Amino acid sequence: MATYSTNEFKSGLKVILEGDPCNIVENEFVKPGKGQAFNRVRLKNLKTGRVWERTFKSGESLEAADVMEFDMEYLYSDGEYWHFMKTDGSYEQLAADKASVEECVPWLKETDKYIVTLWNESPIVVSPPNFVELEIAETDPGLKGDTAQGGSKPATLSTGAVVKVPLFLNVGEIIRVDTRTGEYQNRVKS
Amino acid sequence: MSTDWLSVVSHETLVRRATLLRDVRDFFAERNILEVTTPTLGSAGVSDAHIENITVPLPNSTGYLQTSPEYAMKRLLAGGSGAIYQIAPAYRGGESGRRHSIEFTMLEWYRPGLSLLALIAEVQQLLDESTDGMPQCPIVSYRQLFEEHCGVNPHQASVATLFQIIQDHAINADHLSDEQDNAVGYLDLLFSVLVEPKLDAVVVTEFPACQAALAKTGLDTAGDMVAQRFEFFLDGLELANGYDELDEEAEIRSRFASNNKIRQQRGTEVIPIDERAVIAMSKMPPCVGVALGLDRLLMRIVGARDISKVINFSTDR
Hints:
Chain A has 190 residues and is mostly beta strands. Chain A has 1 helix and 16 strands. In chain B, helix 2 packs across helix 8, helix 4 packs across helix 6 and helix 5 runs parallel beside helix 6. Chain B starts with 10 loop residues before the first helix and ends in a 15-residue tail after the last helix. Chains A and B meet through strand 3, strand 4 and strand 5 of A and helix 6 of B.
């Protein structure tokens, strides 16, 4: 079992804390004037996305987490699993369960590429790219001439995500969305 | 092609370090303070509970790399050297991070007959003369800062009160869970998390007596026992650490013994008492002394955020 001691901690290191794989976001060695040294560490739980702040006595160790990230193409869902394929030429396929893919589902479009994080070779989290381009499946008819500014209306996209869009947009148009905020960015000329 | 063999220190920083060393030597020459050199490899280590000695195997014994030139310089003081200073490498095991390097350059000086306040003024003069635009650092007591940022008197607060403050600020204290004396650890944790980051250009004095190390202790104006020490802080970083030097043999022995007791409880190596140093400390003239991290001062001068940007090659490369 590989372990990392506090003096090997650095951002980007993948470790196991309370049974979950975590990414070290920030590590600071602190040595109070006359006191015991410790490391203040911010870790992101890769399963839940929550960020923890912990202190470790200098010299303590954490188990290394076998975590890897791959660019993978989304193929299809069979209702229980979501299937992805590696884009490195190996065509290797993996099935991600609901828990790992849940946050990404509103942005999943077949043949698009996603980042799949594997822990012990199983997918634990699927992340969309920062921007995705999706088609409007449903929205109120567009208002001609209202292209400048003004109000917005809800639009349901082909994946089921609901995004606020400007009034002039119509069904069938393709838009660019920021997946981090869920906000409309611009219309994509097709 | 790998450039790993190259120094990450810029040429400007190399030049600035050279100028800084020259300015420091000029500063002490003008004041008739003698530059001395003592071995970095000695036969005794320090027993400070929280400093890790780096040992070196010698043919018939264990050698210790100095964690500071303090003991050797005190032996010179006791032998009648008068005021002395030294620029020397120091080594502390496990201390590595953005603001720490296992090997670093220490400037340490001792002034027989000077008061702690006069030494604080001298540190300020050195900073003024060796840097551009160093602000005047006001003197504030540890208690005052602790009350301001944590809301309680650090010399009187109970363990439960300190723990409550830690919880109120959602600070994780896992690393202290198996400590013998939590008050000491909690004070350190609170001060380093809630106070130190906010300290810029300040001299902190009157530390809790439990952090006296080899400084004298005495009563503050409120009647609490405090350590006669000071620390200069710049940008939330401790830059210099000065003491009114303890010179009472029985008290020195008792501090060394209690350090070793903590080491024993924690399961770290017990360090044999350096008899020559103890005798020297009890025979040296009354004096004050200060150690200043030259790498950290250089960080401030060149605006480096990471100490590795001012030290040519870190220990791991």
